[in-house]
Amino acid sequence: MEFQKATITYKEKGEKKTIKVLFNPNEYRLNKGNQFSEVAIPGLSSPPLQFVRGNARTLSMQLFFDTYTYDGGRDVREHTGQITNLLKIDDKCHAPPICHFNWGRLNFIGVLERADQRFTLFLPDGTPVRAVVDVSFKEYSEESQKLESADFAKHYVVKRGDTLSSIAGRKYGDPGLWRHIAEKNNMDDPLAIEPGQVLIIPAIV
User: Fold this and answer.
1) Quick one: 153 and 195 in the same domain?
2) Which residues have a Cβ under 8 Å from the Cβ of 60 and sit 6 or more positions away?
3) Residues 181/189, Cβ–Cβ less than 8 Å
4) Which of 108, 130, 145 is the last residue in one of the domains?
5) What average pLDDT does the structure give for the chain?
6) 99 near 115, Cβ under 8 Å?
7) DSSP per residue over 147-205, as a string?
8) Which has the least CB within 10 A, 111, 125, 134, 198?
9) What is the domain count for the chain?
10) pLDDT, tens digit, for every residue of 176-189?
11) Residue 31, domain extent
């Protein structure tokens, strides 16, 4: 039985794009923590802790790329560049793209926080053909993150059963304003939305 390939899906200029991970990671790490502050009370041997807030989950893993063995010795940066490009700031929302990492039962929505590249094999002319990239994704959720652009547009992750009208009703209080969402996301067919898709919700002035 062949293992399912891990994929990273994101949107670029309104177009959905998918990166197929060359080799599935050997492992991944999911981290979640809380933030506390120390309350300074004189005379105590150790200060009491006060809960401040929960931190977003972090998904981290190591991705391996080898074009020397499996891709005719092409420049491996053609593959690693697809990953590091996820750090670039989108011109429309003034933030990096929201990514959907999918591997079997693992479905993680977040933004790429870090990508550490190491090139480990080179052709005689110096072309890198093998690399390891350590990546870390910070979880995105509508309730906790709400990435905002300079014009106060927000992002919304489509859930099962959603329509543009229902989203407009939830965000604007008027289902009839769905056209603002369709225009902002360059959508010709307002019914063509699917769970996990990330929509830009523009501010209405």
Assistant:
1) yes
2) 28, 29, 31, 134, 135, 136, 137
3) no
4) 145
5) 85
6) no
7) ---TT--EEEE--TT--HHHHHHHHHS-GGGHHHHHHHTT-S-TT---TT-EEEE----
8) 125
9) 2
10) 889 889 988 888 88
11) 7-145
